[in-house]
Amino acid sequence: MGIDSPIFHALHHVLDAAADDKSSANIPSGAYVRDAKAMAATPADVKEYPNSYVFIVDMPGLKSGDIKVQVEDDRVLLISGERKREEEKKAGAKYVRMERRIGKLMRKFVLPENADTEAVSAVCQDGVLTVSVPKLAPPEPKKPKTIEVKIA
């Protein structure tokens, strides 16, 4: 079996075709897939009150220091955190069953135009994060400008 064998020609042809194929550019990155899974697995409720928006997100097993609440450019509220597996303190212990969720938790919400992104507050209690975003006061209606008419 030399370099001129049909197997090498076929392999060379397949590798050339794969190098020319640009469809791999449409494959999502690993980070994108991981974030998409985290967003799908993080349940949330959104409520609108007369003067605020409230986002309620389940963040089980996380302390308040492990949770990040950010307002990104373009008015995007990003809530994230990561729950890691607990290290066993006793030697020789092994998991028999593991059902509790570990890994990244994340949600993104596009905030409306009337959201006050400078006054966002967050409170975490019993694994439930509540983020409040006040609404901006509606702009005052413009009063018509009265122009004094002078006699010439």
TrEMBL record:
Question: Among the entry's GO cellular component annotations, what is one?
Answer: cytoplasm
Q: Write the lineage as a comma-separated list.
A: Eukaryota, Viridiplantae, Streptophyta, Embryophyta, Tracheophyta
Localization recorded for this chain is: Cytoplasm
Protein species of origin: Actinidia rufa
What is the name attached to this protein's record?
A: 17.6 kDa class II heat shock protein
Primary localisation category: cytoplasm
Q: Which UniProt keywords apply?
A: Cytoplasm, Stress response
Entry-linked Gene3D superfamilies: 2.60.40.790
Q: Which SUPFAM superfamilies match?
A: HSP20-like chaperones
Which Pfam families does the record cross-reference, listed alphabetically? HSP20
Q: Which PROSITE patterns match?
A: SHSP
In the record, the note on similarity to other proteins reads: Belongs to the small heat shock protein (HSP20) family.
Q: Which domain of life is it from?
A: Eukaryota
Q: Does the keyword tRNA-binding apply?
A: no
Q: Does the keyword Cytoplasm apply?
A: yes
A single Gene Ontology biological process assigned to it is: response to stress
Record domain SHSP: where: 35-152
